[in-house]
Specification:
single chain; alpha/beta; 6 domains; 6-stranded mixed beta sheet; phosphoprotein; two-component regulatory system; Sig_transdc_resp-reg_receiver; Chemotaxis protein CheA
């Protein structure tokens, strides 16, 4: 390739014997630049420097008068370069090339020292053949993600902050290459890999450095030759990018490298070896032997597009130009708490000012009344003197001593008039101050709203921050299920409260895994059904009416309601001949313990999954609806409040207390006059036009004495949307106001109350419960007497409760993440004593513990559990780095159920957990469907 490039360049200088011009010099400079890059990759330092010198000569020739002598000399130099590349080890050709470049005809000839130095470099040059290149084999230490102990703290902080962002950039660039064939994004991926490699080398993280080094080698070859990878190489590059992201999480969370890190590194090393030995054409072929797939697909090589490549991702550049500060999570939590308290105080101030203005108006009325009394007193005094003229000072019989009394009385009236006038002046000044205080309060409220908006914005993040992780989960699920599918995400720029987005991640992962495992068909099944071989899963995020909505739709086989009915009947969840709508049958899959899988896999079959999703959404005051069409696909729709700090609510009176009804689920507010309340059997119905709703009283949901509804009573009626097309009419005695309130959670020491997620502080300082009406109504329906009788005969299976005991934060987090993602309910303890205290309150179904811990070790914890009759049957799995027989024997003597040595694998750990959990599904047959 290099020789061919020089041949073409020489031919352009020999064309028609025309003396060079500026355009020819520019083309030659660009061509030599490409050749120099290739020479640098091949480590041919001598010829690389010599061609750099020819570029300098070309630059000088561009600014001087063209001469035939320089033209001819440059042609001879290019011909000699061509000969040197053809016979790179020929010493006579090397000497000729150096002599030609030393000619004084050139504007910048080689000096004597330069010629001697380059001659030595050219003599050392040699080209490796395929036989000279050794094939490398990766070992476990090559994927280590341990950080050097003596790493500089500033570098460590930079590593933790920058590494996730860089791996996301690499994944995004590589994804654009796969989707659009963009050569510019291919180069961006190469540069990002180089940056990650440098960061890994500085931190001494061999796994990151080795994997990115091999990736960079492959990308270097593709970029230098302006080539795109074939489908096989694309798949392996994407899998390597996923592994790189997992390695990044392992570094930041101080966890072991992913299980597939070693085979993936070996596969990338094999690709690098293949490209070096067989050339860039191998990039369009099959996988190297060590990572070859059994797939019979025959992919055709892709050619580079002729159109201009798409521009690089602007978001990444903008983000890198913006300055960021790291702020502790506790500081942000305090800011939110203070902002919430400040907002509550502002509401209380507003109420106080309103009360003060009311008192001012009352004072003004009392002052007018006082003036009226003074006027009446003065009139009565005049009438008195009229009726008693002898008291008149001008009468003959008037006693002078009585003149004093007359003057003092009139003086007192005059002083009363003056005092009333003074009070009026003070009242006017006070009213002016209240108006000024009101203006200040309005300005402060505006600043408070702006401050609240800014504080809330610190928690707002774009959905695209989890796109990479969601895409990775999708690819991993497809690999595990041996299916092909593409995930399309819409509304990635939608801003969501980071706490809500974090809580949403786990339910989304469950839904994606469920869609891949249960919804999407295998490639052959899709082809037989007339569908594309590759399935499609769409995630759409959008904000509507202060709610975040997520739609997850697949084009798979849909929910088999006949199979759902059959399994539900077998498990006693529904009568065999009960008449149920498709909507009711589809919601059965949300019940705990329900699964349509007969075999347990890493994706499903344990009976935990969508029930966890539904519970999590309910905790977030959200709803989950399902709409499935057999053979066409399934749509899951999630909705929840947009903010975890503020909530829009209706203040209503229920019994003797005020409660805040979350606007979530309230579809309409009408008056009882707009419809008719009537009784049908044991239920009440509310009819509005052609719509007929089941009627409930708010007091019934809150266990308060119910008010009188119906008859001539006029009261508000709220239409509540429960999801899945189900609505109810809620009777409310009085609506006070519509407010935006601060949401406060109940706290970790109080149990979850269905439909009452938290409280708020009202303007009068009182606390009011926040009611999530859809969740509360559904809880009320399932708590009806028929269901109570059902629950007496059958106990619904709960989620298995596991406890992780470890003094290492990162180890606890790794285990908790894995077990929660699988669907278990997990609690944690920092050592044996902490675990025993928690076990006394609520014993778990299984314990996973470390060996070495402060205060009480894992061995001592197991002995204490076995010596207590109440806990002696709890399985205990020990996970430790100690693998000697002595430690194993001690653990066995202490009653350890299983002993796992680090590093452990996810599959082995989950299998051990499943083996020791012996939970049986009840077989009693209830009479109704539990929704």
């Amino acid at each position: 390739m290099l020789t061919h490039s020089i041949v073409e360049l020489t031919a352009s200088w020999q064309k028609d014997n025309v003396i060079y011009d500026s355009s020819l010099i520019a083309e030659s400079t660009d061509a030599l630049t490409m050749v120099c890059r290739a020479l640098e990759t091949l480590n041919l330092r001598g010829i690389h420097l010599l061609l750099g010198g020819l570029q300098v000569n070309l630059q000088q020739m561009a600014v001087t008068e063209p001469t035939q002598a320089r033209h001819s000399q440059l042609v001879r130099c290019l011909q000699s370069v061509q000969e040197h590349l053809s016979e790179i080890e020929n010493s006579s050709v090397q000497t000729t090339l150096i002599d030609l470049c030393r000619s004084p005809v050139l504007p910048c000839p080689l000096s004597e020292k330069q010629a001697e130095f380059l001659g030595q470099l050219l003599a050392l040059a040699s080209i490796q053949t395929a036989k000279d290149i050794a094939k490398q084999t990766a070992v476990s230490t090559d994927v280590s993600v341990e950080i050097q102990d003596d790493l500089d703290p500033n570098l460590h902080d930079m590593l933790i902050v920058e590494l996730p962002s860089l791996t996301d950039d690499f994944l995004n660039s590589l994804q654009k290459v796969i989707e659009t064939g963009s050569l510019q994004d291919l180069d961006a991926a190469r540069r990002t890999a180089h940056t990650i490699k440098g960061l890994g080398n500085m931190a001494g993280i061999q796994g990151l450095a080795n994997l990115t080094h091999e990736l960079e080698n492959i990308l270097d070859t593709l970029v230098d030759t302006q080539s795109l990878p074939g489908q096989k190489l694309k798949d392996d590059l994407q899998e390597a990018a996923d592994c790189l992201a997992a390695m990044s999480e392992s570094v930041t969370d101080k966890m072991a490298p992913p299980d597939n890190a070693l085979p993936i590194l070996q596969g990338i090393m094999d690709w690098s070896y293949l490209l070096k030995t067989e050339g860039v054409s191998a990039a369009a072929g099959e996988r190297p032997e060590s990572v070859a797939s059994d797939s019979p697909e025959d992919e055709t090589p892709q050619k580079a597009p002729k159109a201009n490549p798409a521009p690089a991702v602007a978001d990444s550049q903008e983000r890198k130009e913006e300055n960021f500060l790291r702020v502790p999570q506790t500081l942000l939590d305090n800011l939110f708490r203070i902002t919430g308290e400040s907002n509550t105080l502002t509401s209380q101030q507003d109420e106080s000012i309103t009360q003060l203005r009311t008192l001012t108006r009352t004072n003004r009325e009392r002052q007018r009344h006082l003036q009226h009394l003074i006027f009446e007193l003065e009139q009565q005094l005049n009438e008195y003197y009229t009726l008693h003229p002898e008291l008149d000072p001008e009468s003959e019989g008037f006693d002078p001593l009585e003149m004093d009394n007359y003057n003092e009385m009139h003086t007192s009236l005059s002083r009363l008039h003056e005092s009333a006038a003074d009070v009026r002046e003070v009242e006017q000044e006070m009213d002016a101050q209240i108006r000024h205080l009101t203006d200040l309060h309005v300005a402060q409220s505006g600043l408070q709203k702006e401050n609240l908006s800014n504080i809330l914005s610190t928690r707002l993040v774009a959905v695209k921050t989890i796109s990479t992780r969601v895409q990775r989960i999708m690819r991993q699920a497809c690999r595990a299920a041996e299916k092909k599918a593409q995930l399309k995400i819409e509304g990635e720029d939608t801003l969501v409260d980071s706490q809500i987005l974090t809580q949403l991640t786990d339910p989304l992962m469950h839904i994606i895994r469920n869609a891949v495992d249960h919804g999407l068909e295998t490639p052959q099944e899709r082809l037989d059904a007339g569908k594309p071989e590759e399935g499609l899963l769409k995630l759409r995020f959008y904000q509507e009416n202060d709610e975040i909505r997520i739609a997850c739709e697949d084009d798979g086989s849909g929910i088999d309601t006949d199979k759902v009915r059959s399994i539900a009947a077998q498990k006693g969840l529904v009568e065999e001949h009960a008449i149920l709508s498709d909507t009711e049958l589809q919601r059965i899959i949300l019940l705990p313990g329900f699964s349509t899988r007969d075999e347990v896999s890493q994706l499903s079959g344990r009976g935990i999954g969508l029930d966890v999703v539904n519970q999590q959404i309910m905790r977030m005051q959200g709803t989950l609806s399902i709409d499935s069409t057999r053979g066409q696909g399934t749509l899951f729709e999630l909705s929840m409040p947009a903010s975890s700090l503020m909530i829009r609510a209706l203040l209503v009176r229920a019994g003797r207390q005020l409660v805040a009804l979350s606007s979530h689920g309230i579809e309409q507010s009408i008056l009882s006059l707009d419809g008719q309340l009537h009784q049908v059997g044991d239920d009440y119905r509310f009819t509005v036009g052609d719509e007929d709703y089941r009627a409930l009283a708010l007091e019934t949901l809150l266990a308060e004495p119910r008010a009188q509804y119906g008859g001539d009573n006029i009261h508000p009626v709220l239409i509540i949307n429960l999801g899945q097309g189900e609505k109810v009419a809620l009777m409310v005695k009085e609506i006070i106001a519509h407010r935006e309130l601060v949401f406060k959670e109940m706290g970790e020491y109080l149990p979850d109350i269905p439909g009452i997620p938290g409280v708020t502080i009202l303007a009068n300082g009182e606390a009011a419960p926040i009611i999530d009406l859809p969740a509360r109504v559904l809880h009320h329906q399932t708590s009806h007497i028929e269901f109570s009788e059902l629950l007496e005969s059958e106990t619904l299976p709960d989620l298995p409760k596991l406890m992780v005991v470890d003094d290492s934060i990162s180890a606890r987090k790794a285990l908790v993440t894995l077990l929660k993602d699988t669907g278990y309910e997990v609690s944690t303890a920092i050592d044996g004593l902490d675990a025993l205290n928690q076990i006394r309150k609520e014993p778990p179904d299984l314990i996973l513990t470390d060996l070495e811990m402060p205060r009480m070790s894992g061995i001592e914890l197991s002995s204490a559990i076995r010596n207590n009759a109440a806990t002696s049957d709890i399985p205990v799995i020990m996970i430790t780095s100690r693998s000697s027989d002595r430690h194993r024997n001690e653990a066995k003597a202490a009653g350890i159920s299983s002993y796992l040595s680090k590093p452990w694998t996810e599959n082995n750990l989950l299998d051990q957990v499943q083996t020791h959990l012996k939970r049986e599904v009840p077989e009693a047959a209830p009479e109704k469907v539990l929704m």
